[in-house]
UniProtKB/TrEMBL annotation:
PROSITE patterns: ATP_GRASP, BC, CPSASE_2
Residues of the ATP-grasp domain: 123-320
Organism expressing this protein natively: Bacteriovorax antarcticus
PANTHER family: CARBOXYLASE:PYRUVATE/ACETYL-COA/PROPIONYL-COA CARBOXYLASE (PTHR18866), METHYLCROTONOYL-COA CARBOXYLASE SUBUNIT ALPHA, MITOCHONDRIAL-RELATED (PTHR18866:SF33)
Stretches assigned to the Biotin carboxylation domain: 4-449
Protein name in the entry: Biotin carboxylase N-terminal domain-containing protein
Entry keywords, A to Z: ATP-binding, Biotin, Ligase, Nucleotide-binding
SMART domains (UniProt xref): Biotin_carb_C
A Pfam match: Biotin_carb_N
Length: 501
């Protein structure tokens, strides 16, 4: 039954809360946002029509407090809840409670989350549907002796994975049998901490894969669409940092096979809403189901830029019970889009998160570029939340043009006052191997040395100083007028060629 949504409570924070507000406004829908005491000055705390202070304390008392969030929605008359990504987005218990309260959950039915949100159960279902999944053990027996036997059967190396996992947490590679016990303990400990569930599964470790995923979108009328692929192979700690569409590794034939497998899954489970079918592509062209994310994905903007569709709008249309207003043939992949995730972290120190106050965020005027950012000047970045600062996405007619625009935009989007991975991302985008499309999931490890920050040599510093002084003398290095050449008088900017490549 179709019923227009009038007010959405956004059970999330940061950039994704702002992203949902944008589309809601365009659709004439009111929004309610949530924030904690320490987020009072963050933009999402006051960007909606109404906002509610969750107080302070651990996440279970704030963004993960299901009953409290549903009470707020009821009190403020919200007729729908958008869960964003992370937090409660893949908690079927939450989706069910929302539905039971007579509120629309902007996402799939709790039954679908139950089936697909868990890696173990989803693999069993996938096998039934005849889509290949990575060889491994996905059963209930969690005894160590048994798991070791299974690992040997699969053949080392194997990957131990938390069944409830997400964000790369609870994963360990085992190369030698002797490492199995400590790896299992580590994975279980991490899984229990992060997800409150230490069930694991075993998978054959594919040594040179690519991560390719298919964006899917289904309505409540049995229409199942795909919005093509994204390649997200460039990762650190099993977490994506660069995402693009189309994938440089996917031919039209392979694309047809992958998208057909995705539709087989969504139609096979009668899915509704937005989702992502993650696949692992092996070097011989075979691909396997990895997991399904039953929500909007961090990297959805690249799909929006190549298809011209607004994924949040489509989610809302589906939640209202309306039909998706297009046919599969209407959905086209146009040009190329690349996203980078800007993190408050130190790539030169094992990507450890960094904290601090953002003095200033740089703006960019590079064409066809989008910055999805949850912060403004003066905001503090703390350890309470994910260290992702923003996503920067550029579109171009070709992959080369998109990469070039994104690299230019990264020059502008500085987060002054914080240690970020910006220069590291620039080094990725300018690496010849990136341009050659050698984007395997071990990219960061394989090119570790080439991606390292390079200190300028004494000769390079001397040359830069000389060039700088010469420019200054000839008066060509001032900032007046509209000339868009050198933007700064800093000697460091003249050296940036050495620092950034
Ligand atoms: P994506 O493919 O969209 O990056 P991820 O699995 O990396 O998906 O998760 C997206 C975000 O949600 C990350 O910031 C991650 O830390 C967070 N996240 C993922 N799973 C969970 C979970 N079960 N509980 C809390 N946060 C999660
Ligand atoms: P998460 O829920 O944390 O996103 P995934 O199962 O999607 O977990 O895996 C995250 C990443 O880990 C993948 O994108 C891939 O790089 C790597 N990975 C996962 N499974 C395998 C595997 N069996 N072999 C090799 N790499 C894998
Ligand atoms: Mg994943």
């Amino acid at each position: 039954m179709t019923k227009k949504i009038t007010k959405i409570l956004i059970a999330n924070r940061g950039e994704i809360a702002l992203r949902v507000i944008q589309t809601a406004k365009e659709m004439g829908i009111k929004t309610v946002t949530l924030y904690t005491d320490e987020e009072v000055t963050l933009p999402h705390s006051h960007a909606g029509d109404e906002s509610f202070n969750l107080g302070s304390g651990p996440l279970k008392d704030t963004y993960l407090n299901q009953d409290k969030i549903i009470d707020i929605a009821k009190k403020l008359g919200a007729d729908a809840i958008h869960p964003g990504y992370g937090f409660l987005s893949e908690k079927s218990s939450f989706a069910k409670k929302v539905r039971d309260a007579g509120i629309k959950f902007i996402g799939p039915a709790p039954e679908a989350i139950d089936m697909m949100g868990d890696k173990k159960t989803s693999k069993i279902k996938i096998q039934e549907l005849g889509v290949p999944s990575i060889p491994g053990y996905h059963g209930d027996n969690q005894e160590i002796e048994f798991l070791v036997k299974e690992a040997k059967k699969i053949g080392l190396p194997v990957l131990i994975k938390a069944s409830a996992g997400g964000g790369g947490k609870g994963m360990r590679i085992v190369y030698e049998e002797s490492e199995f016990q400590s790896a299992l303990e580590g994975a279980k400990r991490e899984a229990l901490n992060a997800f409150g569930d230490d069930t694991v599964l075993l998978e054959k470790y594919i040594t040179s894969p690519r991560h390719i995923e298919i964006q899917v979108m289904s309505d409540q009328h049995g229409n199942h669409f795909h919005l093509f692929e994204r390649e997200c192979s460039i990762q650190r700690r099993y977490q994506k940092i660069v995402e693009e569409s189309p994938s440089p590794a996917v031919s039209p034939e392979l694309r047809a096979k992958m998208t057909a497998a995705a539709i087989k899954i969504t139609s096979g489970i009668n899915y509704e809403g937005a989702g992502t079918i993650e696949l692992i592509l092996d070097t011989d062209g075979s691909f396997y189901f990895l997991e399904m994310n039953t929500r909007l994905q961090v990297e959805h903007p690249v799909t929006e830029m190549v298809t011209g569709l607004d994924l949040v709008r489509l989610q809302i249309i589906v939640a209202q019970g309306d039909k998706l207003p297009f046919s599969q043939a209407d959905v086209k992949q146009r040009g190329h889009a690349i996203e980078v995730r800007l993190y408050a972290e130190d790539p030169d120190n094992s990507f450890l998160p960094s904290i601090g106050t953002i003095k200033k965020i740089g703006k960019t005027t590079v064409r066809d570029t989008r910055l999805d950012c949850g912060y403004v000047d003066g905001n503090a970045v703390t350890i309470s939340f994910d260290p992702m600062l923003a996503k920067l996405i550029s579109w171009g007619e070709t992959r080369e043009i998109a990469a070039q625009k994104l690299n230019l935009a990264l020059n502008d989007v500085l987060f002054l006052g914080l240690k970020t991975n910006r220069d590291y991302l620039k080094r990725i985008l300018t690496l010849p191997e990136f341009h050659e499309g050698k984007t395997y999931t071990h990219f960061v490890k394989t090119y570790e040395e080439k991606l390292q920050k390079r200190q300028p040599t004494k000769e390079q510093i001397a040359m830069a100083v000389a060039a700088f002084l010469l420019k200054k003398d000839s008066g060509t290095n001032n900032n007046s007028g509209t000339h868009s050449g050198s933007k700064t008088n800093s000697i460091w900017e003249s050296l940036s060629g050495f620092r950034n490549v």
